[in-house]
Amino acid sequence: MSNERGSNPNGIPSSTASPLPRKGHGAGPRQKQKPKDMLGTLLKIWAYLSNYRGRLGLILILVLISSVLGLLGPFLLGYAIDRFIGAPDHGGLVQLIVLLACVYVVHSIALWLQNIWMIRISQQAVSQMRKELFQSLHRMPVSFFVKRQHGELMSRLTNDMDNVSSTLNSSFIQLSSSVLTFVGMLGMMLWLSPTLTLITLLIVPLMYFGMKWITNRTGKYFKEQQRNLGDMNGFIEETFSGQKMVKAFSQERKVTAQFIEKSERLREAGCWAQMYSGFIPKLMNMLNNVSFAIIAGAGGLMAVYGMITIGVIVTFGEYARQFTRPLNDLANQFNTFLSAIAGAERVFEILEQDPEAKDEGQAMPIHEIRGEIRYEDVSFAYEKDMQTVSELNFHLAAGQTAALVGPTGAGKSTVIHLLSRFYDPDEGTIYVDGVDIRQITRDSLRSHMGFVLQDPFLFQGTIRDNIRYGRLEATDEEVEQAAELANAHSFISRLSCGYETLLDAEGSGISQGQKQLISIARAILADPSILVLDEATSSIDTVTELKIQEALYRLMRGRTNIVIAHRLNTVRQADVIVVLENGRITEQGNHNGLMDKRGFYYGLVQSQFEEVIV
Questions:
Q1: 339 and 222 housed in the same domain
Q2: Strand partners of residue 563
Q3: Number of separate helices (H) and strands (E) present in the chain
Q4: Backbone region of residue 145 per phi and psi (left: phi > 0; alpha: psi in -120 to 50; beta: other values)
Q5: 3-state secondary structure labels for all residues of 126-161
Q6: Residue 409 maps to which CATH number?
Q7: Which residues contact 69 (CB under 8 A, 6 or more apart)?
Q8: Could you write out the DSSP letters of every residue in 205-228?
């Protein structure tokens, strides 16, 4: 569409566009933030997992079995030492070895099954979450996308979702197993030796305060890491999309410097997050070794005085060595949780955004429209105190063509945005066939509208699929008929694969004019009642323009048309010419009538005529 209110291509005030982050943002530790609502986010994640309660229950049973078997192994080992050392019983020893083998085999099978099942559940839950996020993005109003970098939104769909997925794969099992193992091991230790258990528990406060000191610092850095990653992805997507402009203005050094700055922010946040989280296993290992040394010394003294047996010391030592493992796992899992929470918060932030306003309660779908359009005292502002259009009044009968003319920023594209209900007027009413468009469902209204824009957008896929986008149920014959009416069939037939020629998202391999012809064929196939042409020939060479003009005339025949154009040969034949200046209609009428008034439109014609003569 033509540019309105500055350089923003969507007709939105430039101040609403997503600005580049200020220099130094997020670089210092004081600017880091903790997750906003960890418990709330975990409950939202659980809402997705709760759909699989039955399978989660089976996984818990397997976790319980594996935890019990994990505790049984060291106990049997200690029993073997006390029972068979010094009192040979080969038959009993063989039986015990077989029992130990069975314990460890079943333990391994239980671990394998619970991991497989949990992976399936977590992937299904994340898949559902990803689908809802994608659907939620499509329910957002146009203004939502204007204010955000596309790459940053992509990062939420990819990086943040992958972060949540990788955490769910292991977190539920790890959390359950760690809690059960810790409780079971503590019970066994108390049963074997309350004295050694008390000695072991002296280490726990040191572990707690050490983990608390570390985790209080890791959360804010994981949060900052995810935010910086999204920011950098948005910048990369923006830079690659505008690569021609970067090279045209020789701004390679500038964008490289900006990328380095963003990369440094990401590196710094990542370094701090990983450095602090890396302290946890080191701290746990150190305290674990200290605990084992104390138990070995104290247990040895107790054994000398006959207070406990050697087998109990071995069993207790194994339990003590494993006693910190659940705590260590919980601490490591907590760090993983922090990273996942940071990503999940960004996902739920989108899911909880207010979608495009729902259709009014009285809104009804329409199946056919004639195309009569009337604006009555319509005013609208993208931002408060910055009125974009004011008190618009004009009428367009069904089947007529209206041309919107005026300088850049006059409000031409805004008129179209309001008609298509990308935005709703702040004041006044727009009628289609005498019905307030707010009483028509958005989907129904837009299904009767077709758009041919200044910069045609082609999707990745075949030319046939791109044309069929106008009406998905169209047959191959209807697609080719639309292409013929759009003067596109001849050049498509000359391509090596014809209509099956694959295009990328940029439509590379065909010219700008050919892209526009495909866009026109798409609109012809859609067969809209109201057609919007927004600078459809502004960047096309003269020869191609003639083909496009011919195709446009075929497309416009029998429809209500609204044309935004600067070239007079496009608007001269319009039934109504609406002249906009500073968001207000200053003149309207046909070409001859406006020329007789010798106003703004007359001056515009004269200036273009002089340019042609020169």
A1: yes
A2: 403, 533
A3: 21, 12
A4: alpha
A5: HHHHHHHHHHHHHCCCHHHHHCCCHHHHHHHHHHHH
A6: 3.40.50.300
A7: 103, 104, 106, 107, 110
A8: HHHHHHHHHHHHHHHHHHHHHHHH
Residue written as tokens 């955004």? 353
Identify whether the C-beta of residue 574 lies closer than 8 Å to the C-beta of residue 543.
no
Q: Which residue type sits at 486? A: A
Beta strand 449-452 with 530-534: parallel, antiparallel or unpaired? parallel
Is pTM, for the whole model, over 0.85?
no
CB atoms within 10 A of CB 311: 20
Residue 289 phi/psi, 5-degree rounding, is -65, -40
Ordered DSSP codes for 329-360: HHHHHHHHHHHHHHHHHHHHHHHTS--SPPPP
Within 10 angstroms of residue 380's Cβ, the number of other Cβ atoms is 21
Residue in this structure with the two tokens 């918060």, named with its chain if needed: 345
Which residues, at least 6 apart from 359, have a Cβ–Cβ distance to it below 8 Å? 441, 442
For residue 11, give the amino acid letter. G
pLDDT (tens digit per residue) in 424-436: 899 999 999 999 9
Looking at the structure, tell me whether residues 150 and 211 fall in a common domain.
Answer: yes
Q: Among 125-134, 333-342, 379-388, 440-449, name the one with the lowest average pLDDT.
A: 333-342
Looking at 242-309, list the stretches that DSSP marks H as alpha helix, in order from N- to C-terminal side: 243-248, 252-304
CA pair distance 530, 561, nearest whole angstrom? 6
Separation in Å, CA 452 to CA 97, 181, 426, 457: 79, 65, 27, 10
- In Å, how far are 10, 98, 516, 517, 564 from 454, measured between CA atoms? 12, 78, 8, 12, 10
Among the residues of 22-52, which ranges form H helices?
Answer: 38-49
356: helix, strand or coil: coil
Residue type, 463: I
Residue with tokens 């609204």: 562
Query: Is the domain of 499 the same as that of 540?
Result: no
- Examine residue 11 and state whether it is found in any structural domain, yes or no: no
Length of the chain: 614
CA 31 to chain centre: 24
Is the residue at 15 inside a domain? no
Looking at the structure, tell me whether residues 116 and 188 fall in a common domain: yes
The answer to whether 554 and 524 have CB atoms below 8 angstroms apart is yes
Which range scores top for mean pLDDT: 26-30, 119-123, 171-175, 177-181?
A: 119-123
| Same domain assignment for residues 339 and 487 | no
Report helix, strand or coil for 336. helix
Domain membership flag for residue 5: no
Within 8 A by CB and 6+ apart from 284, the residues are 207, 324, 327, 328, 331
Crossing angle of the two packed helices 194-201 and 252-304, in degrees rounded to 10: 150
Q: Directed axis angle between helix 90-138 and helix 38-49, to 10°?
A: 100
- Phi-psi region for residue 433, left (φ > 0), alpha (ψ -120 to 50) or beta? left
* Helical (H) or strand (E) element with 587: strand 584-589
Q: What is the 3-state secondary structure (H, E, C) of 389-437?
A: EEEEEEEECCCCEEEEECCCCCCHHHHHHHHCCCCCCCEEEEEECCEEH
In what helix (H) or strand (E) does residue 145 lie, and over which residues does it extend? helix 142-146
Band of the pLDDT at 185, cuts 50, 70, 90?
A: confident
Residue 254 CA to chain centroid, in angstroms? 27
Q: Which helix (H) or strand (E) holds 513?
A: helix 512-526
434 lies in which domain range? 372-448+531-551+559-614
